[in-house]
């Protein structure tokens, strides 16, 4: 690692602008957790197999473990810390509580960010389609039924971001 | 992950210049596979060249010949949900949506999909011999746990499979791959893009280092009336195929005029057997004929200790998917078998 290998990178995260000097091999996930202490985004597998690190980049859900921070220069990023409106929880957060959609909670930030991304994409109508489009987020506690119930409740309740 | 430098380019010429034909300089676009390969020291890089700003190749355009051109930098998700692709090439849309997860499809690009590497467990485990990772070290899969491995087209040096779903549909649709490099432009038929392992399993495809995929062309014919993609795997979503099948049929007056059948998960490249497709021409689209075609496709297949089941599975999948293609409405999200 040499100083000349760092890149100045600007990330707009949850409404705040961060100008960082980072090495090109650092993942967006590690920048969030280790450089900015935004530890709500979880590191599960760290190689694209579990979805725990899901965040929204320019409105789209992606895996922050497979993204290099330098490649997101200028991007608008929303993490779990940025989805509520002050103390007012996001509708998906409320639905997760109402439908008992978590046990240990480790996958929950990724599940919620993924659900918001999926609802914005507006490609799932049926429960089977929701299950398919949420399959990139694994829950090992067995809360999947509650998670899909929560997402369906938000869909059927009329979703407004 | 080894330490590498990073540069972002906004023109194709700059990208080719930065790569400079050096194997240690790598292109990055979606990054969903290369970041993984770098992190686990399967691939090393001195420099990553980020081509995302080359906006010229991030779109889908209609071609004068009636086909369409898929930009290499267009994402898999945007391609699958493109109205033209959904309407005229639903086989491609379904295949893309059967692959990876929604998050990965939002990141992954069309060019990158062709360039992704096998998910053979031994290829990913740098502590085991693997001819694809380290030519000459041996193949750990042949006498190892080979449940996901190839049953056709393999060699004594490598039994890895190519993991893409999108490429199975592109093979069936007879796409062509547009390439640019230091020596100009060229086009490869899809069937000639990926290669079989032979004595050099370390080489996945016929791209010369320093060349870049710029776009993928689809011919006019999309088989939108009779098509199906079926993907069979150990869990019903977010897993690579044990066997997948892309079928496109052109049926007129209950007679097959043209048939395309490509398989994924069984070989080092999307697997087509033209003899089987030709056999169906002029025949009725019925189970018995699809079964004969399936036998031709799997002719000469060889299984190993843990994957011989794939041969019969692939035959049944071909028959099932051809039957599903007769009534595309029965297809389910994630290319699961029809109910």
What does this structure look like?
The complex is a heterodimer of chains A (161) and B (339). Chain A has two domains: 3-82, Ubiquitin-like (UB roll); 91-156, DNA polymerase, domain 1 (Orthogonal Bundle), CATH 1.10.150.120. The longest helix of chain A is centred in the C-terminal third of the chain and has 14 residues, at 108-121. Chain A has helices spanning 28-35, 91-98, 108-121, 127-133, 144-156, and strands at residues 7-13, 16-22, 54-57, 60-63, 76-78. Chain A has a five-stranded mixed beta sheet with strand order 2-1-5-3-4, with helices on one face. Chain A is α+β, with helices and mostly antiparallel strands and 161 residues long. In chain A, α2 crosses α5. In chain A, β3 (54-57) and β4 (60-63) form a beta hairpin. Chain A contains five helices and five strands; from the N terminus they run ββαβββαααα. Chain B is an alpha+beta fold and 339 residues long. Chain B has helices at 12-19, 34-39, 76-80, 83-88, 90-97, 102-107, 110-115, 121-124, 166-172, 274-280, 287-297, 309-325, and strands at residues 5-8, 25-28, 47-50, 60-62, 68-71, 176-181, 184-189, 212-218, 227-232, 243-252, 255-264, 271-272. Chain B has a five-stranded antiparallel beta sheet. Chain B has a four-stranded antiparallel beta sheet with strand order 9-10-11-12, sandwiched between helices. The longest helix of chain B has 17 residues, at 309-325. The mean pLDDT of chain B is 97. Classes of the chains: A alpha+beta (161), B alpha+beta (339). The A-B interface holds A 1, 5, 7, 23-25, 27, 46-48, 51, 54, 60-63, 66-68, 70-71, 73, 114, 117-118, 121, 123, 126, 128-129, 131-138 and B 1-6, 8, 28, 31-32, 35-36, 38-40, 48, 50, 52, 77, 81, 100-104, 106-107, 237-238, 332-334.
